[in-house]
Design brief:
The complex is a heterodimer of chains A (668) and B (519). Chain A is mainly alpha-helical and 668 residues long. A two-stranded antiparallel sheet of chain A has the order 1-2. In chain A, strand 1 and strand 2 form a beta hairpin. The longest helix of chain A has 32 residues. Chain B is mainly alpha-helical and 519 residues long. In chain B, helix 1 runs antiparallel to helix 2 and helix 10 crosses helix 13. In chain B, 71% of the residues lie in helices and 1% in strands. Chain B contains 20 helices and 2 strands. Classes of the chains: A mainly alpha (668), B mainly alpha (519).
Chain lengths: 668, 519
């Protein structure tokens, strides 16, 4: 277990070496080197995991203090790592999936001029994520948290010559900053109350927390989690973040980074245990996000946007589980979701490459003929996320829903909402699969008309606020055109190279079997539950076996109904899709737009429109801070006139004010 | 009011009065002497050489002199750590960890600024050793301020520091804005000096001494029934010192002067001069009036801190000139350091010291980059001039991004920890409101730094084609001196964020103490 420091050290070394010699290594050696580093990290994690497994379950905590990072009087932050069942489980799937995605990226990025730079960021990301997970105190987690945020920012904007990408990057940055504020205040609150920010100390102290304090802490950290894990109301950045390269979407915005919020909540379960109604807030926000995002996903036409909203929705499930104290289910779903969502994203990336970087599903069709491996694995991912047994998604989703059913008086309502989400999930995924891999080869139709339709759609559904979106809308059209030029009616899609299909196959395998991690049939089969048991405070009870069986049958039926509806609408054309794909859904319930309108500019102005960034931010700040500060501004700005007399006057006024204060204080 | 007669030694009346000169431990004055003599020697040497010295000679000399002063701190530090703080020259000057630490910051600032100045002067076709001489003299004034144990000595130090700085601000004779900056700085500086001097006089009137130890002793022994004069003295001294550190509402000069001054000099002002100003602030208020009188001056400094934090960050946001932005952001930084002052604890002092050190690296580095980007004429400072810098000059842009992120307080940079320590000191004194205001200010300011970074990396490279500003002439090579300075500054900024332990332990021991002079 002393090897634990090696886990983050590998990608750090990779990062440093690539920064120095990345260009020298060139293509594809830099990519292979980066992959090897992450694989090394994975191997180390395995060793530590086996080590941990061989110790008694009560003693499965190992802390390694590397050095004291920040001494400040009574407060010290150590740079220490902690291996316990929770962190090692996270490390296993983070490094495992990251290795696969690194390999995939070698194929995906093969034509990119900034090849080695991409892997620099990826390695830095993995290092930050491992720090987040392995840190033994809140501050280190926060560091990792900021680190992954930075990498996400850099990677979304990786093709930053592209307007949409760089504004999406900024959007992600801003949304995350709002969440980070909650996280930071939360850390301060913990430190003031507990007197330490080490997880071990927090855990020991938690039972003594006053209910009000614990509630406040839970809500603050949850605010942080809503930012990073894209929950209502801060989820809007994630769909936009799809502007980045697809492996990035798979790694960060599906499998690992966005689950950091869930990890944080599970890590802090001793606090949540005392937090009272904060748990209800988490559960309701989770289920609301799951439902809202699923409805939006129904009407998206961009292959990656569907998956993005789907991710938001699935993360909502995880928070539902957290809010109902069902931490094992949250972690279980996190792992299975990581497998099948990474698979779906990588599959979509394979399709996008095969289709000359076209992302509009309305121009796909019948691709199973051209890309058999991609299609086959994608279909496995589809069945897994739709909740068809015995694939992994069914088991974890069912555990969340069953747990929610049992959670107090509101439980059945939570369960029902979750079930509706499951129905929608099955439906929109079926829609995606049929549009992409079945039906007619639509790109062979009149390309020009289609391109325009796509561009119009981009302008319309590109959720532009009605303020000054002209420039960006035009840019979006340009962007669409840029991407269209490759896809001509005589285009022949080809299957991707083995570096891309190999990860797909591996992930498909895991998506099928990952359910065995935690089967509800006997205590012994609940491996994940037993493994995580020492980390979690409090008991969570599943419904009795008959009820559980009833709920499971309900879930299976729902999935199948969802798939059948999708089949009927999109394959058999029994109903007009436009009746379902309402424009209100396509535009995400106008949530994003109302933010911009509500904020009177700064929100949208801030992250949209790089070109008019300057003028917008000035207005945005002035408007945003409100009329009051406008008054202040009026007061101050003329004061800074450049004329010395005015300055001296300001000086004098200041001095007089101080003297007035003195007069009130003094005793003559 | 209790009347207290000061027991001064009676002057012996005799036919041949013997004036006793105090004993001076010269070695303890080493940093100060090295700076002054180095400056004067440079001037003499260059006039003897009559222009035969190569252009890099002045800068190299300055770096060596400041480096020697920095080196002389080590033996003094261990002396202070072993024997405790001591006073020199009949109690006029104090030698303690605090004064040595501040001296170190000033020397660092001189070294970095001199390195940056070298390339700058060559580019601008400005010659002469005067720049460096003035900087060394100004620094020596700062050192006097940092170690002053007497209000008059403090004032003298401040004047030495300032007069040289007034001239430096206006040295770029071809730029009208430089002359304007110098003039403004001079007039308002004189104004503020008057306040400070008046404050000193009132304090003297109230306590019967200008010696900090005696003042403190007097206030401990005596209960002032009428404290009006003393408090008025506080107010006036706060005005005078508040001007030097550019705290709101005595900040008006700073944006104009920072913007107008030659850029490396702006860096020196923001780091070295600010450090000296804070040294005076802390020595007078925290150390001398720190006890029961803290509640009398604290609300005033508190107000200055809050105003500086908010006005600085807010005004910085609405600027379009990068140099001016940095000026306002330096006001916000002053607000942070004032938090360390206003809590008036050892913790606050060491937090302020750490902040000043980190800030010295960040800000000289930032102004260094700005000076290079400013190009010939030192005029290209609009935000538009930074468009696409990430493409045209990736190295410079990356370095600037590090400085900006550090100023924004991103973890793993010194900027994060310095803010953290200051807020930590405020929280330890249960000043939660102040802590929250500081965080709000940090958030507002973060947008500002982000704005510059965005301009460098994301703007100018979109579909709108190449903007006219983008049509940069081929990038010139960064001068060697500047490259070294920027390298040092980046390294230090990151080092202080990753392994701060080495410096924080020093800062924690660098507490200011007043020691009575035992003649």
């Amino acid at each position: 277990m002393e090897l634990i420091w090696l886990i983050p050290a590998f990608p750090v070394v990779g990062f440093v070496v690539l920064v120095l010699f990345g260009r020298l290594l060139g293509k594809p050696a830099a990519g292979w080197f980066a992959s090897a580093m992450v694989a090394g990290s994975f191997a180390t994690t395995l060793v530590v995991f086996l080590d941990l497994l061989s110790t008694q379950s009560a003693q499965r905590v190992f802390e390694q203090k590397l050095y004291t990072w920040m001494p400040a009087g009574s407060f010290t932050a150590t740079f220490g790592l902690m291996a316990d069942p929770l962190s090692i489980m996270m490390c296993l799937f983070v490094t495992g999936i990251a290795t696969l995605i690194h390999i995939y990226s070698i194929g995906y990025m093969r034509d990119d001029e900034n090849f080695s730079k991409f892997f620099i960021y990826l390695n830095l990301f993995v290092a930050s994520m491992l720090l987040l997970v392995l840190g033994n105190n809140l501050l280190l987690t926060f560091l990792g948290w900021e680190g992954v945020g930075l990498c996400s920012f850099l990677l979304i904007g990786f093709w930053h010559t592209d307007l949409a990408n760089s504004s999406a990057a900024k959007k992600a940055f801003v949304a995350n900053r709002i969440g980070d504020f909650g996280f930071m205040v939360g850390i301060f609150l913990v430190w003031v109350t507990v007197g330490s920010i080490n997880y071990a100390d927090i855990r020991a102290y938690a039972p003594n927390l006053a209910a009000g304090t614990a509630t406040a802490m839970a809500l603050l950290f949850f605010l942080g989690a809503t930012g990073k894990s894209a929950q209502l109301p801060l989820y809007t950045w994630l769909p936009d973040a799809m502007a980045g390269p697809t492996p990035v979407s798979a790694l960060m915005h599906a499998a690992t980074m966005v689950t950091a919020g869930v990890y944080l909540m599970v890590r802090l379960n001793p606090i949540l245990h005392e937090a009272g109604w904060a748990n209800d807030v988490i559960a309701w926000v989770g289920v609301a996000t799951a439902l809202v995002a699923a409805t939006i996903a129904v009407a998206q036409n961009d292959i990656k946007k569907v998956l993005a909203y789907s991710t938001v929705s699935q993360l909502g499930y995880m928070f539902l589980a957290v809010g109902t104290h069902n931490y094992v289910a949250a972690m279980f779903h996190m792992v299975t979701h990581a497998f099948f969502k990474a698979l779906l994203f990588l599959g979509s990336g394979s399709v996008i490459v095969g289709m000359a970087h076209e992302q509009d599903m309305r121009r796909y069709g019948n691709l199973r003929k051209y890309m058999p491996i991609t299609a086959g694995t994608f279909i496995i991912g589809w069945l897994a996320i739709a909740g068809v047994p015995p694939l992994s998604g069914f088991w974890s989703k069912d555990e969340i829903l069953a747990g929610a059913f049992n959670a107090g008086p509101a439980g059945p309502v939570l369960w029902l909402l979750g079930l509706i989400t499951a129905l929608l999930t099955a439906f929109y995924m079926t829609r995606q699969v049929i549009m992409t891999f079945y039906g007619d080869e639509k790109w062979r139709e009149d390309a020009h008309a289609e391109a325009h339709a796509g561009a119009d759609e981009a302008a319309e559904a590109g959720d532009e606020a009605t303020g000054a979106p002209v420039a960006t809308a035009v840019a979006a059209v340009d962007h669409a055109h840029d991407d269209h030029h490759g896809l001509t009616p005589d285009h022949e899609p080809v299957e991707s190279p083995w570096t891309m299909t190999f990860p797909l196959v591996v992930l498909a395998g895991f998506s099928i079997v990952a359910g065995v991690l935690n089967l509800p049939f006997s205590d012994k089969l609940e491996r994940l539950g037993n493994w995580l048991h020492p980390v979690i405070i409090g008991e969570h009870h599943m419904p009795n076996a008959p009820v559980l069986f009833g709920l499971a049958s309900g879930a299976i039926t729902t999935s199948i109904v969802g798939i059948l509806i999708g089949y009927a609408v999109y394959e058999k054309r029994k109903a007009d899709p436009s009746k379902i794909e309402l424009s209100v859904l396509a535009r995400g319930w106008f949530i994003d737009e109302s933010y911009s309108k509500f904020m009177g500019g700064p929100g949208r102005a801030f992250y949209q429109g790089v070109a008019d960034f300057d003028s917008k931010i000035v207005d945005g700040v002035v408007n945003g801070v409100g009329k009051g500060s406008l008054g202040i501004g009026r007061l101050i700005r003329p004061a800074q006139s450049g004329i010395i007399r005015t300055y001296a006057l300001g000086f004098g006024v200041g001095a007089v004010l101080l003297l007035v204060f003195v007069v009130t204080r003094m005793s003559l | 009011m209790l009347s207290v007669i000061l027991q001064d030694t009676p002057i012996p009346i005799s036919a041949n009065p013997v004036i006793e000169t105090p004993e001076i431990v010269w070695s303890s004055l080493a940093p100060h002497l090295i700076l002054i003599l180095g400056g004067i020697l440079l001037l003499t040497l260059v006039s003897l050489l009559r222009g035969k010295a190569p252009s890099w000679f002045h800068a190299a000399w300055t770096v060596v002199v400041a480096g020697a002063a920095l080196g002389s701190l080590w033996p003094l530090w261990s002396r202070v750590q072993e024997d405790g703080p001591q006073t020199l020259i009949a109690g006029a000057v104090g030698l303690d960890g605090f004064s040595l630490f501040v001296t170190g910051i000033i020397c660092v600032s001189v070294i970095l600024s001199a390195l940056l100045l070298e390339g700058y002067l060559r580019r601008e076709n400005l010659v002469g050793p005067e720049w460096y001489v003035l900087m060394l003299l100004s620094a020596s004034g700062g050192v006097i301020m940092a170690s002053a144990n007497d209000l008059i000595v403090l004032f003298i130090g401040l004047e030495i520091l300032s007069v040289a700085a007034y001239v430096l601000a206006s040295m770029h004779s071809r730029r009208i804005s430089s002359s304007e900056a110098g003039l403004k700085y001079l007039i308002l500086g004189a104004f503020s000096s008057a306040f400070l001097l008046y404050g000193i006089a009132m304090t003297y009137g109230a306590t019967g001494s200008t010696n900090l130890v005696r003042i403190q002793q007097f206030l401990v022994d005596t209960v002032l029934i009428k404290n009006g004069m003393l408090l008025a003295g506080f107010a006036f001294m706060i005005v005078g010192l508040g001007f030097k550190v550019a705290a709101v509402p005595f900040h008006f000069w700073a944006p104009d002067v920072y913007q107008g001054s030659p850029t490396p000099i702006s860096g020196y002002m923001a780091s070295g001069i600010k450090a000296a100003g804070f040294a005076g602030f802390i020595r007078v208020f925290v150390v001398t009036f720190g006890g029961t009188y803290a509640q009398q001056w604290r609300p005033m400094v508190y107000a200055l801190a809050v105003l500086s934090l908010l006005v600085g960050a807010y005004m910085a946001l609405i600027q379009t000139n990068v140099k001016r932005m940095l000026a306002y952001s330096s006001i916000a930084h002053a607000g942070f350091i004032l938090i360390g002052v206003t809590v008036a604890t050892d913790k606050g002092t060491s937090a302020a010291l750490f902040y000043l050190l980190v800030y010295a690296f960040m800000v000289t580095g930032s102004f260094g980059v700005v000076g290079i980007i400013g190009r010939e004429g030192d005029g290209k400072h609009s935000l538009d001039d930074y468009q696409g810098l990430g493409k045209t000059r990736p190295g410079l842009a990356l370095i600037f991004a590090v400085f900006l992120l550090a100023q924004a307080g991103v973890p793993f940079t010194g900027g994060f920890l310095s803010k953290f320590y200051v807020i930590n000191a405020a929280v330890a004194e249960e000043q939660y409101v102040l802590a929250v205001i500081a965080m709000v200010s940090a958030v507002i300011a973060a947008y500002l730094y982000l704005r510059i970074i965005v301009s460098m990396y994301f703007a100018g490279a979109d579909d709108h084609g190449v903007s006219p500003e983008m049509a940069n002439p081929p990038a010139k090579k960064v001068p060697a001196g500047a490259a070294i300075a920027l390298g040092i500054a980046v390294f230090a900024t990151l080092w202080l964020g990753i392994v701060p332990d080495t410096v924080t332990s020093v800062a924690n021991e660098a507490v200011a103490r007043l020691v009575a002079f035992q003649g």
